[in-house]
Amino acid sequence: MSDAPPDRRPATAHDVAKAAGVSQSAVSRAFTPGASVSPATRERIVAAARALGYRPNLVARSLITGRANLIGVTVPANANPFYHAALNALTAAFARAGYGVLMFTSDPLRGSDPVLEEVLRYRVDALVLISTSLSSHFADECMNIGLPVVMFNRKTDSDAASSVTGQNREGARTIAAFLHAGRHKRYAYVAGLESSSTSRDREEGFFETLREKGVKAIERRVGQYTAAGAEEAVVSLLSASKPPDAIFCANDHMALAAISVARVRFGLNVGEDVSIVGFDDIDMARWPVFDLTTFSQPLDDMVRRAVAAVLDQLNGTLDTALHDEAPGRLIVRGSARKPRTGLATADDGALTWPMRG
């Protein structure tokens, strides 16, 4: 005779309903975020479910409701801390709204199309693409199958996908005005990916403003949004016979690498011999060892806008593409020479430089 315990079937919603003295539909509502059920009834159902070891069957629920309560999120396979902070913030925000996140990694150099072939094999209610490009072909395909797509920190020309970005162009214009006011003589820009709308917008704003101020020669290198790419680009710039004394990197990840190269390889005093400015205001930018001047991307605000765009589309209250821009500010720290005038102290104590149009 076997000593093994007898098989025990998993508790069902019917079992919970019987134990709690409610209908099976009430059990379903109790475990559906936002559904109508009184607090007392919900408490009784949850207590019965806990006693029986009941867990809602999400697969069965998705067949009934037509929703998987899952959001697909793609993130580049890159060490940039901004991407990981965005992923964590999006995951937490969707969890509060009752949605789980299914994460996919994309190759930054290939864009999202290859990974989307994989994503579309899964049952997800919407897609959020973090810092990932999207072809018009896939944007249109997602629209045709009714799958909401929100691009985060990127934008597309297609009206089939919504987007949430920071103030890329205006932020770069502000950086250019700040550096020019700091009496720099030679300027350089370290671009991200050539395919990135974010990098292009920042480059256009930077070059446009400097040329308005009479600056004709601006060096340019491509860092691919990576530390290794930025190191190579900055070595090339600082090895020139007349190296730049002001370098704007398209994101903080590259700017931190630029600071390391300038200090360690070239023995420069960053903030005096050369000014280095980034874009994003990641946590490491505040570290005293870097003390990076950077234009902020308000991550919490961007996440709030992106999640709202997804939920509005799922609820049917947004039927056209939304292109949203979250306001940021230039935060002045020690990695760049400070202008003699024009600086201001914000309410939170940060030293800032005013936005320009």
Report on the architecture of this protein:
The protein has 357 residues and is an alpha/beta fold. It has three domains: 44 residues, Orthogonal Bundle (434 Repressor (Amino-terminal Domain)); 127 residues, 3-Layer(aba) Sandwich (Rossmann fold), CATH 3.40.50.2300; 156 residues, Rossmann fold (3-Layer(aba) Sandwich), CATH 3.40.50. 39% of the residues lie in helices and 18% in strands. It is built from twelve helices and 14 strands. The strands form two sheets. An eight-stranded mixed beta sheet has the order 7-6-8-9-10-12-14-13, sandwiched between helices. It has a six-stranded parallel beta sheet with strand order 2-1-3-4-5-11, with helices on both faces. α1 crosses α2, α5 packs across α12 and α8 runs parallel beside α9. The protein is elongated and about 80 Å long. 45% of the residues are buried.
What key phrases describe this protein's structure?
about 350 residues; alpha/beta; 434 Repressor (Amino-terminal Domain); Rossmann fold; 8-stranded mixed beta sheet; 12 helices; about 40% helix
